[in-house]
User: What shape does this take?
Amino acid sequence: MTTTDYNDSKWHGWNGGTIPVHPKTNGEFMFADGEILANKPAGDWCWSDNELPIVAFRVTKECKEPQEYWLCYVHTWDTPHVHTYAPKDDGYYIKVTHVREVT
Assistant: This one.
């Protein structure tokens, strides 16, 4: 599956469906009647089954969630094993470090 990077300051046409960007991403939104509303979060609008649908949008400030992962150490490994979820404490790991990106 490929994803589109909408954070390029260009207008993108929209034919409906689920929201294509993070709900807290700010942008300009053009509606079917030609009205453009700016500097609003994408999550403020209904992106599907709307009486006045969005027909185009442009990202002005992208919102990204911080990355989060767990470094799991085992006594027989020289390097940690990386998990994208918190591992169960089953006694297998001797040390677990939770890492969360600061933005």
Observations:
- The first strand starts at residue 12 and ends at 13.
